[in-house]
C-alpha cells in the first residue's frame, strides 16, 4: 500500500529524523504530542500535529486507540513507531494493521516471536547460530536456583519479554540470584506486563556487536555490516561505531550470513538488527533481535550511504530493496555519541530542566540528530537524550579525532550532561586502541577532578557575572523605608534582594 | 567586589574590580588582568594571558541563599563551586562540615518512588544490606548500606515520590 501521509508515533530526535526523510520523499508528516510536548521540536517540524493526551507515555504515545484516531482525524494512512514506545509491541502493530493502516515495521507475528527471548533463542539455534547456555523452561525460584548451579555463574537474569536492557541483572552467586529474582520480576511486570524471567550464562567482558539487516516482501534480505555498541551503562548504549574495530573480515561475513539466516527463518520484512555478543576469544553468540530502527543507525548510514528510514518506508510500501548484498558499500568509519542530560559522575543519574544554553558543533562530515532547542524544558518523563552527534572519517582515528573536536565545540548549559565524559572517553587508551567490552564503564575512571586546568577562567566568568549583578542592583532605587515596617514587607524585600 | 571561592576542599579569596575600563581579578593576592565580555545570555569569552576560553555559567540554587552556587562549563568540562560574600557571616567551614556528614546520609540518586522500605529506625545494618528500593527510570533500584551502621533516621515512607537528592535514610556509624 502506498504511504501518502505518515504519522510518527514518537517524539524527540527520532521523530525529527523521520520527518526529515519524509520531507525528502515528499510525504506529509503528522506529529503527535502529549500535554508537555506541545512546543517540542518534532511538533514544530511536522506538517500536521495532533494532541494525544497527558504527559506519561502510557497515556499518550503508547495509546494505540488515540494514535489510530489521530490518523483518522488527519488523514494519515501509515504509522512509523520510531524506537521505544510501541515500536516492538505486536498487539499495537496488529491493531494498527486491522484499522487499515500501514505499519512501518515487521509483522505482528514476527514481533511476537522475537519479543519472546526464549523463542528467539530457539530460532537462532535452529539455523545453526550459537546460543549461550541457559535455562529455557519457566521454573519456580527454587528449581531455577537448582538449574542455575548446573549452568554455572556468573549469569544474566532477563525478562522473557524484555528489551532495551530493561530489568536485566548480572548475578555472580546463588545469593545474588535469589535476591535478583523478585527485582527482575518486578521490573518485568512494570515494563512488559509479564513476570516470566529466564537465565542465561553471562560472558565476562564481551563485545556487543549488532548486524543491521533489511528485508523486503519479495524474499530479498541483505545485511548492512555491523555496529559496535560495547560502551554501555545500565545495558544501554552510549556510543556506537561502524565498522567494529574488533571484527575481522571473516567474522564480518559470518555474522552477516547468520543475521540474514535468522531474519529469513522468521520471515522478517523490514529493517532490524540481529545482536551478538563476542566472547574474549572472538566467538559470536546470539543475543537477541531488535525489530525496529535503532538509536545507533546513523553510523550504518554513514558507511553505507543508505537512508534506513527511507528503506523502511519503501519496504512497507512493498517495494524491492534497491541494492543487492554485493553492492552494499563500506566506506570509512563512523562513530556516534549520545549526548544525554545525565551525570556521569553520579552513576549517570538523569538530569532534567531547561536548556539554558546550546551551541551545537558544526563542521566537515558531522551529523547532529537532535530534538531540542535553546529554552526547551527536558521533562523527567522521557529519555534524557539531547542530541546524537556522529562523525565520519576515512579511518577510525580520523572519525575519532573529528568527534573529539566536535565535543570540544559542543556546549550545553542548564542541565548536567555527558559531553565532558565523552571527551575523556575518546582520550582513553583502551578506547583508542579499539579494545572494547561491555564492562568498560564498570569503574568510574573518567571522574572529573573538581579543579581542572581552566579553573581560573571558569571562576573569572562567574565572578564577573556577580560583579555585573551587583552593579545592576546598585543602579536600582533602594526600597522606600516605609515599606519595611511590617514583617511581611521586610520578608519580600529580603527575598527580592537575593534573587 | 570581594568573594570567597569554595571548590572541593579549597578556599580562595578573590576580588574583582574595573579600573579605567580594564577588569582585574585578584586571586589570593595575585593580580591578573582579564579581558572578559558577555557574548550570549549566560556565556562569556575570557582572555587571560593571551589564552582564550569560552565559559558558560549556570547558577545553581543553594539551600543557603548566601552561597552562590555555580556550574561553569568550559571545553574541558564543568566546574562546580560556590562564591560567597565574605561580609556575610557564614563560614565556609560550616559547608565543609555539612559535606563531611554527607557520607552517612543516603540520598535519592534519581527522582522516583519508594517501592519498599526494608529497615526500621534503630536497626543495625551490615555493609551491603539492602535499605530500600526506589523505582526510578522504570527500574527497581536497590540502595544498600555503604558500611555497617545503625539506622538513625528514616526520612521516607513507602509509596512516596522522591526528588533527586532527597534525603532518604540517615545512618550512624557504629564503633567496632
UniProtKB/TrEMBL annotation, chain A:
Keywords for this protein: ATP-binding, Biotin, Ligase, Nucleotide-binding
Domain of life: Bacteria
InterPro entries recorded: ATP-grasp, BC-like_N, Biotin_carboxylase_complex, Biotin_carboxylation_dom, Biotin_COase_C, CPAse_ATP-bd, PreATP-grasp_dom_sf, Rudment_hybrid_motif
Entry GO MF terms: ATP binding; ligase activity; metal ion binding
Ligase is among the record's keywords: yes
Gene3D superfamilies reported in the protein's UniProt record: ATP-grasp fold, B domain
Keyword Transit peptide in record: no
Domain ATP-grasp: 121-317
Domain Biotin carboxylation residue range list: 2-446
Chain segments annotated as coiled-coil in the UniProt record: none
Residue numbers spanned by region Disordered: 472-499
Record's protein name: Biotin carboxylase
Source organism (scientific name): Mesoterricola sediminis
Automatic annotation (TrEMBL), chain B:
InterPro entries: Biotin_Carboxyl_Carrier/Decarb, Biotin_lipoyl, Single_hybrid_motif
Domain Lipoyl-binding, residue spans: 95-172
Keywords attached to this entry: Biotin
Keyword Transcription: no
Signal peptide coordinates: none
Superkingdom classification of source: Bacteria
Pfam families for this protein: Biotin_lipoyl
The protein's name in its UniProt record: Acetyl-CoA carboxylase biotin carboxyl carrier protein subunit
